[in-house]
């Protein structure tokens, strides 16, 4: 067990979305200060930018992070409440050496987190996070002398980010949009930007409240029932909901239907590839094979990576991809900036609908639908590494119609009529299995074969 001044865990300090945990249990102000000192030491930062979402613990952690940065001699500008993509882009636009976002994104109110951004607005990659983690663990970095402590000022909003959005997308049509910020970080910015872009906007849950009283901070089919009802009631063209920090968006079509994340991702990827005349699209190992189907339609190629937007942005840069997204509503538009951005994605989607002259329902209707199933198999934490190694060694022989395998994040097998992903849970004594088939019969067969494989590997 590793202890980082109030963060006790069997895992690494940094996950795919930075540091995250229950406030004052896992994530304390002591740890937040240490991470800030370490991050400043790693980047040799002289200028830093901080923002937060609406969580109750945000001001406490903001002060702790600011104190750590100031103690190293860095000057600090605080934005206050702002979406993560606004912080990311502002880090670049304001020429800061580092950006620090305090958010737990879609997690429950008791959680918070720390996400670090480079001077170009991209999130710290795995190597950078590992380096900061080592510095946190060692505490081997000097603080500045009393007379060279940094200065803390209030940043003047995120108008640079607003200008970016409005300069990037010019809408021709007056779209009727119902916006649900979910009491999160987009509560003010999303309605403002969409209205300025020419949309007729109705808002719900647009008051900042870190308890998230109206719905979960994760926009899902279940949590957006009210939004779907209102879209039909007011005959809106689209409903859009954001997660706690605004890097994800979920959509309701004009018929009041929740648009499946995979369907939305595949449809928009298809539009981008059609516009660009082909190219690479990046998604993660959990995304539906409908993304491949949509890409191949326009001469595109799909690259799959680990779950997490850090890995997504790395792969987009590495492959020169034209677009990247995860099936949770996190989309990266590399020609604009490097952070997943729910509000930018909303504007880009509306522009795509104008270009294609389609409603949202029509836009996604052409994407093939497959059957996805998920189950959990109990497995002691101590056996997980051995079990996953056995799965990787024997999986090819266990499946009918096996084509190829990947071990970049768990074990993913491509089959002639579907695929399966087997991953060890990072938080519970479980092995998780996700399958997708071209039919319900195929999906059930793939699941049966996968469960049998996992159980054999546990007993072996």
The residue-averaged pLDDT reads 94
Strand-residue proportion: 15-25%
CATH superfamily of the largest domain: Alpha-D-Glucose-1,6-Bisphosphate, subunit A, domain 3
State the name of the first-level CATH class of the largest domain. Answer: Alpha Beta
Q: Which stretches of 5+ consecutive residues score pLDDT under 50?
A: 1-10
Query: What spatial form do the alpha-carbon principal axes imply?
Result: globular
Number of domains: 4
CATH architecture annotation name of the largest domain: 3-Layer(aba) Sandwich
Rg calculated over all Cα atoms: 22 Å
The end-to-end span amounts to 28 Å
Structure summary, number of beta strands:
21
Computed structural class: alpha/beta
Helix content: 25-40%
Major sheet description = 6 strands, mixed
According to CATH, the fold-level topology of the largest domain is Alpha-D-Glucose-1,6-Bisphosphate, Chain A, domain 3
In DSSP terms, counting alpha (H) and pi (I) runs of 4 or more, how many helices? 14
Adjacency order of strands in the biggest sheet:
3-7-6-4-5-8
How would the blueprint of this fold be written?
Elements: E1 2-3, E2 8-9, E3 19-22, H1 29-43, E4 47-52, H2 58-71, E5 75-81, H3 84-93, E6 98-102, E7 111-117, H4 126-138, E8 152-154, H5 159-168, E9 176-180, H6 189-196, E10 200-203, H7 225-233, E11 238-242, E12 249-252, H8 261-276, E13 279-284, H9 290-297, E14 300-305, H10 309-319, E15 323-326, E16 330-332, H11 342-356, H12 360-365, E17 371-378, H13 384-398, E18 402-406, E19 411-415, E20 418-424, E21 430-437, H14 440-459
Parallel strand pairs: 4-5, 4-6, 5-8, 9-10, 9-11, 13-14, 13-15
Antiparallel strand pairs: 1-2, 3-7, 6-7, 11-12, 15-16, 17-21, 18-19, 19-20, 20-21
